[in-house]
Specification:
By secondary structure, the chain is an alpha/beta fold. It is built from 7 helices and 11 strands. The chain is about 20% helix and about 25% strand.
Length: about 220
Protein backbone atom coordinates (compact mmCIF):
# COMPACT_ATOMS: atom_id res chain seq x y z
CA UNK A 1 0.00 0.00 0.00
CA UNK A 2 1.37 3.41 -0.94
CA UNK A 3 2.31 5.97 1.69
CA UNK A 4 2.43 9.74 1.83
CA UNK A 5 5.88 10.55 3.18
CA UNK A 6 8.19 13.37 4.16
CA UNK A 7 11.77 12.24 3.67
CA UNK A 8 15.21 13.69 4.47
CA UNK A 9 13.64 16.89 5.78
CA UNK A 10 16.30 18.92 7.58
CA UNK A 11 15.53 20.93 10.71
CA UNK A 12 17.55 23.14 13.01
CA UNK A 13 17.73 22.46 16.74
CA UNK A 14 15.20 25.25 17.26
CA UNK A 15 12.77 23.62 14.83
CA UNK A 16 13.16 25.69 11.67
CA UNK A 17 13.09 23.99 8.27
CA UNK A 18 14.28 27.01 6.27
CA UNK A 19 15.93 30.32 6.93
CA UNK A 20 14.25 33.67 6.31
CA UNK A 21 14.49 35.75 3.13
CA UNK A 22 14.64 33.15 0.38
CA UNK A 23 16.03 34.59 -2.85
CA UNK A 24 17.74 33.57 -6.07
CA UNK A 25 21.05 33.90 -4.24
CA UNK A 26 19.77 32.11 -1.10
CA UNK A 27 17.27 29.45 -2.26
CA UNK A 28 17.22 27.91 1.25
CA UNK A 29 16.94 31.26 3.01
CA UNK A 30 19.55 32.98 5.16
CA UNK A 31 21.84 30.33 6.70
CA UNK A 32 19.55 27.61 5.34
CA UNK A 33 22.38 25.56 3.77
CA UNK A 34 23.71 24.85 7.27
CA UNK A 35 20.74 22.52 7.77
CA UNK A 36 21.83 20.25 4.95
CA UNK A 37 25.52 19.68 5.71
CA UNK A 38 24.75 16.02 6.47
CA UNK A 39 23.24 15.60 3.00
CA UNK A 40 25.70 17.56 0.87
CA UNK A 41 28.54 15.18 1.75
CA UNK A 42 26.76 12.00 0.70
CA UNK A 43 27.22 9.87 -2.37
CA UNK A 44 23.46 10.14 -2.97
CA UNK A 45 23.67 13.94 -3.23
CA UNK A 46 26.63 13.81 -5.60
CA UNK A 47 24.82 11.28 -7.80
CA UNK A 48 21.68 13.44 -7.86
CA UNK A 49 23.66 16.26 -9.43
CA UNK A 50 25.65 14.20 -11.89
CA UNK A 51 28.79 14.00 -9.78
CA UNK A 52 30.79 11.12 -8.38
CA UNK A 53 32.34 10.34 -5.03
CA UNK A 54 30.70 11.37 -1.81
CA UNK A 55 30.56 9.64 1.55
CA UNK A 56 28.88 6.25 1.98
CA UNK A 57 27.79 6.29 5.61
CA UNK A 58 24.66 6.33 7.73
CA UNK A 59 23.70 9.76 6.38
CA UNK A 60 23.99 8.39 2.86
CA UNK A 61 21.79 5.42 3.75
CA UNK A 62 19.03 7.79 4.88
CA UNK A 63 19.51 9.91 1.77
CA UNK A 64 19.19 6.90 -0.51
CA UNK A 65 16.14 5.63 1.37
CA UNK A 66 14.42 8.95 0.72
CA UNK A 67 14.23 8.15 -3.01
CA UNK A 68 13.11 4.53 -2.75
CA UNK A 69 9.68 3.59 -4.14
CA UNK A 70 8.72 7.23 -4.87
CA UNK A 71 6.18 7.52 -7.67
CA UNK A 72 5.37 11.24 -7.44
CA UNK A 73 6.34 14.38 -5.54
CA UNK A 74 4.39 17.35 -4.23
CA UNK A 75 6.13 20.65 -3.55
CA UNK A 76 5.25 24.27 -2.93
CA UNK A 77 5.84 27.16 -5.26
CA UNK A 78 8.69 28.39 -3.04
CA UNK A 79 10.56 25.11 -3.44
CA UNK A 80 10.21 25.33 -7.21
CA UNK A 81 11.63 28.83 -7.38
CA UNK A 82 11.96 32.35 -5.94
CA UNK A 83 9.33 33.97 -8.17
CA UNK A 84 6.20 35.26 -6.46
CA UNK A 85 2.84 36.28 -7.92
CA UNK A 86 1.80 35.70 -11.53
CA UNK A 87 4.42 34.10 -13.77
CA UNK A 88 6.07 37.00 -15.63
CA UNK A 89 7.19 34.55 -18.35
CA UNK A 90 8.13 30.89 -18.71
CA UNK A 91 11.88 31.40 -18.37
CA UNK A 92 12.13 29.96 -14.86
CA UNK A 93 12.45 26.17 -15.07
CA UNK A 94 13.52 25.32 -11.51
CA UNK A 95 16.76 25.29 -9.59
CA UNK A 96 18.05 22.00 -10.98
CA UNK A 97 18.95 22.45 -14.65
CA UNK A 98 17.39 20.58 -17.54
CA UNK A 99 17.45 17.20 -15.77
CA UNK A 100 16.04 17.60 -12.24
CA UNK A 101 16.76 14.82 -9.73
CA UNK A 102 13.13 13.67 -9.41
CA UNK A 103 12.56 11.46 -12.49
CA UNK A 104 8.83 11.19 -11.72
CA UNK A 105 5.85 13.58 -11.96
CA UNK A 106 6.11 16.56 -9.60
CA UNK A 107 3.00 18.54 -8.57
CA UNK A 108 3.71 22.17 -7.68
CA UNK A 109 1.17 23.99 -5.51
CA UNK A 110 0.54 27.50 -6.78
CA UNK A 111 -2.20 30.11 -7.16
CA UNK A 112 -1.10 30.95 -10.70
CA UNK A 113 -1.75 28.63 -13.66
CA UNK A 114 1.04 27.39 -15.88
CA UNK A 115 1.25 24.65 -18.49
CA UNK A 116 3.08 21.45 -17.53
CA UNK A 117 6.85 21.67 -17.84
CA UNK A 118 8.46 18.57 -19.34
CA UNK A 119 12.11 18.13 -18.39
CA UNK A 120 14.77 15.57 -19.22
CA UNK A 121 15.07 12.33 -17.27
CA UNK A 122 11.37 11.68 -16.72
CA UNK A 123 10.49 14.73 -14.60
CA UNK A 124 7.38 16.71 -15.51
CA UNK A 125 6.25 19.62 -13.32
CA UNK A 126 2.47 20.03 -13.08
CA UNK A 127 1.19 23.26 -11.59
CA UNK A 128 -1.86 22.72 -9.37
CA UNK A 129 -4.05 25.72 -8.56
CA UNK A 130 -7.00 24.05 -6.80
CA UNK A 131 -5.48 23.07 -3.46
CA UNK A 132 -3.62 20.38 -1.56
CA UNK A 133 -6.38 17.76 -1.85
CA UNK A 134 -6.38 18.04 -5.63
CA UNK A 135 -2.58 17.83 -5.77
CA UNK A 136 -2.59 14.70 -3.61
CA UNK A 137 -5.27 13.05 -5.73
CA UNK A 138 -3.31 13.77 -8.91
CA UNK A 139 -0.08 12.55 -7.29
CA UNK A 140 -1.67 9.27 -6.19
CA UNK A 141 -2.96 8.67 -9.70
CA UNK A 142 0.44 9.40 -11.20
CA UNK A 143 2.36 7.34 -8.62
CA UNK A 144 0.61 4.10 -9.63
CA UNK A 145 0.60 2.64 -6.09
CA UNK A 146 4.10 3.84 -5.25
CA UNK A 147 4.71 6.34 -2.45
CA UNK A 148 4.10 10.09 -2.67
CA UNK A 149 6.83 12.31 -1.27
CA UNK A 150 5.91 15.71 0.16
CA UNK A 151 9.02 17.69 -0.66
CA UNK A 152 8.39 20.99 1.06
CA UNK A 153 8.73 23.71 1.88
CA UNK A 154 7.75 23.96 5.50
CA UNK A 155 4.30 25.42 4.90
CA UNK A 156 3.38 22.62 2.50
CA UNK A 157 4.36 19.94 5.02
CA UNK A 158 2.38 21.75 7.71
CA UNK A 159 -0.74 21.87 5.54
CA UNK A 160 -0.59 18.17 4.78
CA UNK A 161 0.07 17.35 8.44
CA UNK A 162 -2.96 19.34 9.53
CA UNK A 163 -5.01 17.61 6.83
CA UNK A 164 -4.07 14.27 8.44
CA UNK A 165 -2.80 12.59 5.28
CA UNK A 166 0.92 12.10 6.02
CA UNK A 167 1.87 8.57 7.08
CA UNK A 168 5.57 8.98 7.87
CA UNK A 169 8.21 11.67 8.35
CA UNK A 170 11.98 11.31 8.33
CA UNK A 171 13.51 14.40 9.95
CA UNK A 172 17.23 15.17 10.07
CA UNK A 173 18.02 17.51 12.96
CA UNK A 174 21.23 19.40 12.24
CA UNK A 175 23.30 20.71 15.19
CA UNK A 176 22.71 24.38 14.38
CA UNK A 177 20.38 27.16 15.49
CA UNK A 178 18.77 29.47 12.93
CA UNK A 179 17.05 31.77 15.43
CA UNK A 180 14.24 32.54 12.99
CA UNK A 181 12.72 31.20 9.80
CA UNK A 182 9.91 28.74 9.10
CA UNK A 183 8.92 26.57 12.08
CA UNK A 184 7.66 23.09 11.20
CA UNK A 185 5.69 22.15 14.31
CA UNK A 186 4.48 25.46 15.78
CA UNK A 187 0.85 24.94 16.83
CA UNK A 188 0.76 21.32 15.63
CA UNK A 189 0.12 18.52 18.17
CA UNK A 190 1.97 15.51 16.72
CA UNK A 191 0.88 12.98 19.40
CA UNK A 192 -2.73 14.03 18.85
CA UNK A 193 -2.25 13.36 15.14
CA UNK A 194 -1.12 9.83 16.06
CA UNK A 195 2.64 10.07 15.46
CA UNK A 196 5.34 8.41 17.50
CA UNK A 197 9.09 7.91 17.08
CA UNK A 198 9.82 4.57 15.40
CA UNK A 199 13.50 5.07 14.56
CA UNK A 200 16.33 7.34 15.69
CA UNK A 201 19.98 7.33 14.66
CA UNK A 202 22.75 9.77 15.57
CA UNK A 203 25.65 10.78 13.32
CA UNK A 204 28.20 13.55 13.71
CA UNK A 205 26.21 15.75 11.32
CA UNK A 206 22.59 14.98 12.20
CA UNK A 207 20.11 13.14 14.37
CA UNK A 208 17.79 11.17 12.12
CA UNK A 209 14.28 10.65 13.51
CA UNK A 210 11.49 8.72 11.83
CA UNK A 211 7.94 9.45 12.95
CA UNK A 212 5.22 7.01 11.96
CA UNK A 213 1.48 7.50 12.21
CA UNK A 214 -0.54 4.81 13.96
CA UNK A 215 -2.82 2.90 11.63
Amino acid sequence: MSKVKVCAFSLSLDGFGAGPNQSLEDPLGANGPELHTWFFKTKAFQKMHGGSGGVEDTNNEFAERSFENIGAWIMGRNMFGPIRGPWPNLDWRGWWGEEPPYHVPVFVLTHHPREPLVMEGGTTFYFVTDGIESALKKAKEAAKRKDIRIGGGVQVVREYLKAGVIDELHLAYSPVFLGSGESLFAGIDMPKLGFSVTEKVHTNEAMHVVLTKKT
